[in-house]
């Protein structure tokens, strides 16, 4: 969804920014009687689609600690990084922006108790939809929309 949005909307001028997504997945078939599924955290470019740097991990909790080592060797200047709520940690986002000179699109959920109320208080009804995707799968129809707005840095 975010990759499609980034591909269709260039908010930066004549050349679109490179985009890279960070996500973790449980490895199918890796669980045994006494061992839980192993997790893999990967950085994947949106176009062309490549995985420049996967990082293995044990349990899901290791995904957060693999964030910096995964991004460290990559040139992220002016790149847009996308990631889910698990990696939306203030210290990691600050590191991406200040030290790696990247931009980001992050999911914010209940794991960010200060940011979530601030985002909910924005005037979302007044912000136009920038991108919509509707699809069917898993016995249901889902529609997702993206709205973008600027907020003041603090």
Keywords for this entry:
154 residues, Nucleotidyltransferase, domain 5, 5-stranded mixed beta sheet, 5 helices
Strand content: 25-35%
What's the CATH architecture of the domain at 2-27 and 34-111?
A: 2-Layer Sandwich
Q: Describe the main β-sheet briefly.
A: 5 strands, mixed
Task: Give the strand order of the largest sheet, numbering strands 1, 2, ... along the chain.
Answer: 3-2-1-4-5
- Write down the Rg: 17 Å
Structural class: alpha/beta
Q: Quick one: overall form?
A: globular
For the residues shown, what is the average pLDDT?
76
Q: What's the end-to-end separation, in Å?
A: 28 Å
User: Unreliable runs, pLDDT <50, ≥5 residues?
Assistant: none
Sequence of secondary-structure elements: HEEEHHEHEHEE
| Named CATH topology of the domain at 2-27 and 34-111 | Nucleotidyltransferase, domain 5
How helix-rich are the residues, as a percent range?
Answer: 10-25%
CATH homologous superfamily heading of the domain at 2-27 and 34-111: Ribonuclease H-like superfamily/Ribonuclease H
Helix segment tally? 5
Q: How many β-strands, per DSSP?
A: 7
Oligomer: single chain
CATH class of the domain at 2-27 and 34-111: Alpha Beta
Descriptive overview:
The chain is of the alpha/beta class and 154 residues long. The protein has a domain at 2-27 and 34-111: Ribonuclease H-like superfamily/Ribonuclease H (Nucleotidyltransferase, domain 5, 2-Layer Sandwich). The chain has five helices and seven strands. The protein has helices spanning 2-8, 62-65, 67-71, 90-98, 115-120, and strands at 19-26, 39-45, 53-57, 80-83, 103-106, 131-137, 140-146. The strands form two sheets. The protein has a five-stranded mixed sheet with strand order 3-2-1-4-5, with helices on both faces. Strands 6-7 form a two-stranded antiparallel sheet. β2 (39-45) and β3 form a beta hairpin. The longest helix is centred in the middle third of the chain and has 9 residues, at 90-98. It starts with a helix and ends in an 8-residue tail after the last strand. The model has no long low-confidence stretch (mean pLDDT 76).
């Amino acid at each position: 969804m975010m990759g499609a949005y980034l591909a269709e909307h260039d908010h930066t001028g004549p050349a679109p920014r490179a985009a890279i997504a960070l996500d973790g997945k449980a490895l199918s078939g890796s669980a045994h009687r006494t061992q839980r599924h192993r997790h893999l955290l990967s950085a994947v470019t949106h176009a062309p689609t490549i995985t420049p740097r996967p990082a293995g991990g044990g349990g899901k909790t290791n995904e957060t600690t693999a964030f910096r080592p995964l991004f460290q060797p990559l040139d992220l200047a002016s790149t847009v990084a996308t990631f889910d709520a698990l990696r939306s940690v203030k210290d990691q986002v600050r590191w991406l922006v200040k030290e790696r000179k990247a931009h980001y699109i992050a999911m914010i959920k209940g794991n960010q108790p200060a940011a979530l109320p601030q985002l909910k208080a924005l005037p979302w009804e007044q912000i136009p939809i920038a991108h919509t995707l509707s699809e069917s799968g898993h016995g249901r129809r889902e529609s997702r929309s993206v709205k973008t707005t600027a907020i003041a840095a603090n």
